[in-house]
Write a structure and sequence with these properties.
The structure holds 3 protein chains of 3 kinds. Chain A is α/β, with parallel strands linked by helices. Chain A folds into 2 domains: 119 residues, no CATH class; 126 residues, no CATH class. Chain A has 10 helices and 6 strands; from the N terminus they run αβββαβαββααααααα. The longest helix of chain A is centred in the last third of the chain and has 15 residues. Chain C is built from 6 helices and 5 strands, in the order E-H-E-H-E-H-E-H-H-H-E. Classes of the chains: A alpha/beta, B alpha/beta, C alpha/beta. Chains A and B meet through strand 2, helix 2 and helix 7 of A and helix 8, strand 10 and strand 11 of B. Bound molecules: iron/sulfur cluster (4 copies). One iron/sulfur cluster binds next to helix 10 of chain B.
């Protein structure tokens, strides 16, 4: 953390950036996002294994952009989001400084987004054993059980959209759920409204989701909505050779390969 | 009526619960669900938990659910036929295990739903609801009821309030006629009042500020930068409003299927970026700091000014549920020191 | 189940399958009348949500059909669609939406007979499965429940 803080202080005092987006201590010692604008406050930066919120969500917020050029403290999930956002032309290399951070709090400096991309090659975006086990458990249920599981799980949703607000990839100013000319997804948090909202959310994140779990961590109802995107990550890897965010190829669903394989089209 | 005090034995509580169920009333009580503890229909006393500071969502759903169908309509050549809300189908509900802050939250909610016109759906539901409160033996760092006029043993809003005593038995305070009606279901369970003091059996919640000071400050600092500073990390979801016992904003929607449809109301939140978006495209609250200011001003200035009641009971739910740790007590404390 | 006639919605592209279905008619090939055809410019335009809307409105089965790979009128719309269906079909399946009721196919403008066969087999299969009520029940939730918490 020492070198991260030192770099942050340097960047602020040389006015290379106006704000450091990082983590600081919040309620009950848990981390929260911090927007550090004075050198003196750099000391408040912290980093530990509880820092799971994906700070990249702030890079596209108009209110935060107004603070001036940011430097962002970026563990791997934030780095992945940065690459995806860069590919989607939501952020430019010249607009931000990325302060990569390792789990043991070491600073990793990057001269370019391409450098982040090659750094990420050592961190393949893969589901861990526990995630795979949960996917297998749900997939192993009968059709009726799966339907019962998801209708029950999603019936808890009251459509606060915290999952959307916390997701770095949900940056649309007007989300499809808010389209009302004509009404497309029901506004209300009744069963149909929830079902369509969650299916739409998952589909819009297919091949874009960086599997950071920020959505699930944000959900006040603890809903396992992140397993919808995890399922699609697994499917995309297995069936379409998807490997994770990249600056080079197009998004999974906005590109294609003439040789894509499937076994269900007659 | 004056409050009547009784002793209800620990072993009598399930008996009372069963009597209430047997009377045909719908009973909702805190229940451990797969991810949260929340009010839910419970089949038996064994499903009821007492292991919660407060439930994730407030008790307000009993009178103001997240989705409510107001009426059905059918369009035909002869015009539009409307099937109105069946007020007489509203069941008698007993809310069991309501915390004092939650019970107090029905006052501001009621004030909002009656201030210009009487919202008969809400008021009828509330009239048919009996609130069985349980005072708090535990509080956490998010609780601040004592800073906004409440306390962990407050009887405000409850029809009966139970307080757990050191023996494990309960002090029962019967507060209203509705409470008496519950007592009448099993009068033998309500024994002579204990001598033990209620206060020593309550959680300690420090006073951090007073609501009057907050009002004075927010009225004065409407144009201050404090809102910008505080709202920086707010990501503009609806969580704080949806878990809040006093937030009453809703959206009206028509859901159409060919010639049939229904009009529904559904929760809304002032923290959503499109909450105040006009059809012209203009948005009078264009940034999150304006929305955060609205949230606080509404609760601590506009409501006391217009309907004579504050819009926060200090339950701390919004802080616990907020995905980015916007701790309202901390923010209000800072405002009180300005 | 002999009484049950499945309601099938077909989302098809204008250039291949719609023309193919037209050919089925002009060739006087008889096929099941259970299907309502909705014409799109391209399979690439068929939003995944339309499938759910159809189930919500009471469809028992769905056919999605367009040009064979490499034959798309817009060059690559069907390639995009294919990827989308790979992902969406997996998601539906995972969530317990009955994908046995969704038939994807490529039918060219010259394959009038194939169209008839796709429709007939889909109708038979869905007739076998019976009415699809799971999704409809969710869609009709407010018809039966006044409130929820
Ligand atoms: S955060 Fe949870 S409750 Fe809120 S909209 Fe998302 S899934 Fe629903
Ligand atoms: S959908 Fe969830 S896991 Fe995926 S990028 Fe968004 S917040 Fe992260
Ligand atoms: S504003 Fe927060 S603390 Fe106050 S009543 Fe609402 S949820 Fe509780
Ligand atoms: S204060 Fe928290 S819960 Fe409320 S809108 Fe902001 S981020 Fe969401």
């Amino acid at each position: 953390m020492v070198d991260v803080k030192k770099k942050a202080a340097e960047l602020l005092s040389s006015e290379a950036v106006k704000v450091i987006i990082g983590y600081t201590e919040g309620t009950g010692g848990k981390p929260r996002a911090a927007f550090i604008q004075n050198v003196a406050d750099v000391e408040k930066l912290i980093f530990n294994s509880q820092c799971v919120m994906n700070l990249a969500v702030y890079l596209t917020k108009a209110e935060i952009k107004k603070l001036g050029k940011p430097a962002i403290v970026a563990p791997v999930n934030v780095l992945r989001a940065i690459i995806q956002l860069a590919f989607e032309v939501q952020i430019q290399e010249s607009d931000i400084v990325v302060l990569g951070i390792t789990p043991d709090e070491k600073l990793v400096e990057f001269q370019s987004f391409a450098a982040i991309e090659s750094y990420l090659e050592d961190f393949k975006m893969e589901l861990d054993a526990k995630e795979k086990e949960t996917l297998a458990k749900i997939s192993g249920m009968s059709l009726e059980e799966r339907w019962a599981y998801w209708t029950e799980e999603l019936s808890e949703c009251f459509k606060c959209y915290a999952c959307r607000a916390a997701c770095p990839m949900c940056y649309c100013h007007k989300c499809a759920v808010e389209q009302n000319k004509p009404q497309w997804i029901p506004v209300a948090a009744h069963q149909l409204g929830n079902m369509e909202w969650h299916i739409m959310r998952a589909m819009h994140l297919a091949g874009r989701c960086v599997n950071c779990d920020a959505c699930h961590n944000a959900c006040p109802k603890g809903i396992n909505l992140n397993f919808l995107t995890k399922l699609m990550l697994a499917d995309a890897q297995e069936q379409l050779g998807y490997t994770g965010p990249t600056l080079k190829e197009g998004n999974l669903l906005s590109t294609y390969n003439p040789n894509d394989q499937e076994n269900f089209i007659k | 009526m004056t409050i009547e005090k009784y002793l209800v034995k620990k072993t009598s509580l399930p008996v009372l619960f069963d009597k209430i169920k047997a009377s045909g009333k719908v009973v909702k009580a805190p229940k451990k669900k797969s991810h949260t503890t929340d009010f839910a229909d419970v089949a038996s006393f064994s499903e009821v938990t007492d292991d919660y500071i407060v439930t994730t969502q407030s008790a307000k759903s009993v009178a103001f659910p997240r989705v409510e169908k107001l009426f059905n309509y059918v369009k035909s050549k002869d015009g539009v036929q409307i099937t109105d809300y069946a007020l007489n189908a509203i069941p008698e509900v007993v809310m069991w295990g309501v915390r004092p802050c939650d019970a107090a939250g029905f006052d501001p909610l009621n004030a909002i739903f009656t201030w210009d016109i009487n919202d008969v759906i809400f008021t009828t539901k509330l009239k048919k609801t009996t609130i069985i409160g349980f005072s708090c033996q535990n509080a956490d760092e998010n609780c601040f009821c004592t800073s906004v006029g409440g306390n962990p043993g407050s009887t405000q809003g409850s029809d009966i309030l139970f307080t757990k005593l050191s023996s494990g038995d309960y002090l029962a305070e019967v507060i209203s006629e509705k409470g008496k009606a519950i007592q009448a279901l099993a009068p033998e369970l309500f024994e002579a009042a204990p001598s033990e003091d209620k206060e020593q059996n309550l959680a300690k919640v420090d006073v951090k500020f007073t609501k009057e000071i907050i009002k004075e400050k927010v009225d004065k600092y409407f144009e201050s930068d404090v809102w910008k500073e505080q709202a920086q990390r707010c990501i503009g979801c609806g969580t704080c409003a949806f878990v809040c016992p006093t937030c009453a904003c809703f959206d009206i929607q028509d859901e159409n299927h060919g010639k049939n449809g229904h009009r529904i109301r559904t929760w809304d939140s002032c923290c959503f970026s499109q909450f105040t978006l006009h059809t012209s495209g203009h948005n009078p609250r264009p940034t999150q700091d304006r929305r955060w200011r609205q949230r606080i001003m509404h609760k601590f200035s506009y409501m006391p000014d217009r309907i004579n009641v504050y819009g926060c009971v200090g339950c701390g739910r919004c802080s616990r549920a907020c995905p980015v740790d916007m701790n309202i007590a901390e923010h209000l404390t800072n405002i009180s020191k300005m | 189940m002999s009484e049950f006639e499945p309601k099938i919605v077909a989302f098809v592209c204008n250039w291949c399958t719609y023309a193919g279905a037209d050919l089925t008619g002009t060739s006087r090939i008889k096929y099941a009348t259970n299907v309502k055809i909705v014409r799109f410019p391209c399979t690439g335009r068929i939003d995944f949500m339309l499938l759910l809307k159809a189930f919500g409105e009471g469809a028992d089965g769905i056919i999605i059909s367009g040009c064979h790979p490499n034959d798309c009128h817009y060059t690559s719309g069907n390639f995009h669609a294919r990827r989308r269906w790979v992902m969406f079909r997996g998601l539906m399946n995972f969530m317990g939406i009955d994908t046995r009721r969704v038939q994807f196919s490529w039918v060219s403008a010259a394959e009038g007979a194939k169209w008839a066969e796709i429709v007939n087999t889909t109708v038979d299969e869905v007739r076998e499965l019976g009415p699809y009520t799971d999704y409809k029940k969710v869609a009709d939730y407010l018809e039966t429940e006044v409130t929820n918490g």
